[in-house]
Amino acid sequence: MEAIWLYQFRLIVIGDSTVGKSCLIRRFTEGRFAQVSDPTVGVDFFSRLVEIEPGKRIKLQIWDTAGQERFRSITRAYYRNSVGGLLLFDITNRRSFQNVHDWLEEARSHVQPHSIVFLLVGHKCDLEAQRQVTRQEAEKLAGAYGMRYVETSARDAINVEHAFTELTRDIFALVRSGDITIQEGWEGVKSGFVPNVVHSSEEVTKSDRRCLC
Ligand code: GDP
Ligand code: MG
């Protein structure tokens, strides 16, 4: 049966090359930790449903940069049609933390007139012994930018669900309050649908869909 969701949110994942963006997305969407080989062109996208409250599902469409971040050549289109983002650094790589500001500036300059709700993510938290960025300073930076901060590990599946779910909840609250609105020609938020009539065959046709918004 067709998946039923209230909204679809499009998210991006940004941060320096090798901080673990692709592995985090794979862990979340495929439930496993695997070495990821980036395709050489284009972007990859993945999707998954999350249940933010009992019976309330949101479909996430998550875009991966497919290696362009190495050359800082991520296009405007990548940012512009997104409502949310995970901004990653690697807790064992101080340089990637220092670059958080530049990533945020880049995103903000590309995303006008929209804005993106970001979550700051300190990734590879399983490598505690090699930590170069304290939780305290990362929380301080996140606070200065009005973001939440979460530490994750794709390898050990720590806080992966939590990171995506918290961001989804924050965006959902902004949609509910009217601070974020669905707009024609913008892919960031789309309204979902539920079947009006559930057929015995469990097939839902287009005419049976009822827009929720
Ligand atoms: P991207 O360039 O940001 O997409 O980074 P990748 O997802 O390709 O990961 C870069 C490297 O970091 C790979 O060698 C991964 O195996 C490793 N990596 C990714 N996530 C984790 C993690 O949670 N813990 C550890 N220890 N290594 C990770
Ligand atoms: Mg990658």
TrEMBL record:
It is a lipid-anchor. InterPro entries: P-loop_NTPase, Rab39, Rab_GTPases_membrane_traffic, Small_GTP-bd, Small_GTPase. CDD domains: Rab39. GO terms for molecular function: GTP binding; GTPase activity. One of its GO terms (biological process) is Rab protein signal transduction. The keyword Repressor does not apply. It is found in: Autolysosome membrane; Cell membrane; Cytoplasmic vesicle membrane. Belongs to the small GTPase superfamily. Rab family. This is Ras-related protein Rab-39B. It comes from Perca flavescens.
